[in-house]
Design brief:
Distance between the termini: 53 Å
Number of domains: 3
Shape: elongated
Strand content: 25-35%
Oligomer: single chain
Largest sheet: 9 strands, mixed
Radius of gyration: 32 Å
CATH superfamily of the largest domain: Alpha/Beta hydrolase fold, catalytic domain
CATH topology of the largest domain: Rossmann fold
Length: 597
């Protein structure tokens, strides 16, 4: 063990286990990973000793501790930890383990739950995929009980990057020194167990009685976010947290961030005991509200990690916010959906609000495609659930509650993390995708001389203005404001018409001066004004109206037709010819609220 006398008390238990201890308060036991020693926890000890009684042990075969058996099991290392608690006279403790130490912490909690308050499994392995399992087995076979300088260098490169970032050079050097100082035989025996123990708890995690935090880095390829998410899913009181940008040695590479998450998780237990639990400390409700505002009757892809660590997802538009404090959102999934059992039993999920360029992604996740994630870019979110690149907003949630309602289940999520941007959302309305950005961009681009009008509907009636020359739609020079009497908004305000502009309906140029005309669909509240010039005309009666402008007559004829089939497009051209562009191309699949996989 490295000399820790400057910041901790050092000792040796009757069984030969070396340990360091600092601080006072609720006991916290730290168990390091393969190749390390108790001193690797210095950053956590220094940050926690003012609040906790912190103990870090040298694992069997490491530091000052004796060798494990020739062919050890996880139980041998868990029993070592129990003996340490007995030696120190501690009935119960929080247990924090890293990598191999995380497996030991789990074993300890499964064997002796009465001795454990909570566990934190940092960068734990679970059911390695075949290619990764083979690589680890090959490394284990190559160990011969002698020092391996080349192997140490490869490990440092895997843990910190190659080359090591300048800001992590000191941390990487300390880690390398620990690897170089470890007993080669102790390392070999422990690593061989580590290489084959990744599935030891697969059948036992559902019986884990204590709260458990499974935390890893988004860039840790060997102890991946999918592994932590899968363990959290199995543990009855499990939770997954993924630290963005971090690798395997995040406890020493990002000690402030990692320790804060550890302490926050442990503090939940203490707060519950004293009835002082805090909800959403530091959560920015204002930003959360703005992120929710990114959703415009939109399209989402809901994602999670399945029981085998595989990403799962489905397209849904049944999304809404529930509460700001605590931050809650919900989404629905049909009972008949093949993905229902996965999502209904998940501990976490993410809701991705799609942008107007992600129609293809919406279609894929609404389809029966075998591998929906193969054609989209994604990364694990805070809970391990997939977050799709390019989303307008994402809400990464723990499952707060599952509510059965008719033929659907309502997934209520407590938002753990969220993000949003200014991209335009993808909309879905009346069986078709819509791109509201088209309308918003056109509004922003209109010049003061542009003729801006609206087809305003209320209950099957269209609002017209009757003049000496016949009937006109409300229009003005530019969109303007209520105070500008020549603009569309100024006209509507003057006539006390409360209107809500919706989607773009037609754009054309006309006349020798090539004036642009922009017309929108919208709705209105029946005006209380006694203005006799206002007329509400049934849609079926529009054809018989006297309308002087042939371009307006043509546009209204199209409006009547499209109303009859409830499918609208946008006319682009001039006053003589042009084309109607549909808001969405017909597709084989439509938005649904269930995984069709």
């Amino acid at each position: 063990m490295a000399d820790a006398s400057a910041w901790a008390r050092q000792g040796t238990a009757p069984d030969g286990t070396g340990f360091i201890r600092a601080g006072s308060g609720t006991p916290v036991l730290f168990i390091h990973g393969v190749g390390m020693n108790a001193a690797i926890w210095q950053p956590q000890i220094e940050r926690m000793a003012d609040r906790f009684d912190v103990i870090a042990i040298d694992m069997l075969g490491h530091g000052q501790s004796p060798l494990p058996p020739q062919h050890p099991e996880l139980a041998d290392y868990a029993d070592q930890a129990i003996r340490m608690l007995d030696h120190l006279g501690l009935d119960k403790a929080f247990v924090i383990g890293h990598s191999m130490g995380a497996l030991v912490a789990q074993e300890l909690a499964l064997r002796a739950p009465e001795r454990v308050r909570r566990i934190v499994s940092l960068n734990a392995v679970f059911r390695r995929p075949p290619e990764l399992a083979e690589a680890v087995r090959q490394r284990a076979v190559a160990l011969n009980g002698r020092s391996d300088t080349a192997g140490t260098a490869q490990t440092i490169a895997r843990w910190f990057g190659d080359p090591v970032p300048a800001e992590l050079e000191a941390t990487a050097h300390k880690t390398s020194s620990a690897l170089s100082a470890v007993d080669p035989e102790g390392y070999a025996r422990t690593y061989r167990l580590f290489a084959r123990a990744d599935g030891d708890h697969a059948d036992r995690l559902p019986t884990l009685a204590v709260p458990a935090l499974f935390m890893t880095g988004s860039e840790d390829r060997n102890s991946s976010p999918a592994m932590s998410a899968a363990m959290a899913r199995l543990a009855p009181h499990g939770r997954c947290t993924v630290l963005s940008g971090e690798k395997h040695m995040m406890a020493v590479a990002a000690p402030d961030l990692t320790t804060r998450h550890i302490v926050d998780f442990l503090a939940e237990d203490e707060a519950a005991e004293h009835g002082t639990a805090k909800t959403n400390a530091g959560f920015d409700s204002g930003e959360f509200r703005r992120a929710l505002g990114s959703f415009l009757t939109g399209v989402t892809v809901v994602t999670t990690i399945g029981p085998e660590g595989e990403p799962r997802g489905f397209t849904a538009n049944s999304f809404t916010s529930v509460s700001l404090d605590p931050p809650l959102v919900l989404v629905c999934i049909a009972h008949k959906a093949l993905g229902h059992p996965v999502f209904a039993t998940s501990k976490s999920f993410a809701i991705n609000v799609l942008n107007e360029g992600q129609k293809a992604a919406s279609g894929i996740f609404a389809s029966k495609a075998a591998d929906k994630f193969a054609s989209v870019a994604w990364r694990p979110g805070r809970t391990g659930s997939p977050v799709l690149d390019g989303s307008v907003a994402s809400f990464d949630c723990d499952m707060e509650r599952l509510v059965e309602a008719g033929d659907h289940s309502i997934l209520i999520g407590r938002v753990r993390d969220f993000e949003h941007n200014s991209a335009q959302p993808l909309g879905y309305c009346r069986g078709a995708y819509v791109a509201p950005g088209l309308s918003q961009d056109a509004l922003a681009a209109t010049q003061p001389g542009t003729d801006v009008g609206a087809i305003l509907e209320n209950g099957g009636r269209i609002l017209f203005l009757e003049t000496a020359d016949g009937f006109e739609l409300p229009r003005g020079r530019g969109l303007g404001s209520a105070g500008d009497g020549k603009s569309l908004r100024g006209l509507l305000a003057a006539k006390a018409i409360e209107a809500q502009l919706g989607f773009l309906f037609a754009v054309w140029d006309a006349g020798a001066v090539s004036r642009t005309h922009v017309y929108y669909r919208g709705t209105f509240d029946v005006p209380a004004s006694s203005d006799r010039g206002i007329r509400l005309i049934e849609i079926d009666a529009i054809e018989g109206l006297k309308i002087a402008d042939p371009a307006i007559r043509s546009m209204l004829a199209r409006y009547v037709r499209e109303c009859s089939v409830d499918a609208f497009g946008v006319y682009v051209g001039n006053d003589v010819e042009g084309e109607v562009r549909p808001l969405a191309r017909p597709s084989a699949s439509t938005v649904n609220t269930g995984d069709q996989r």
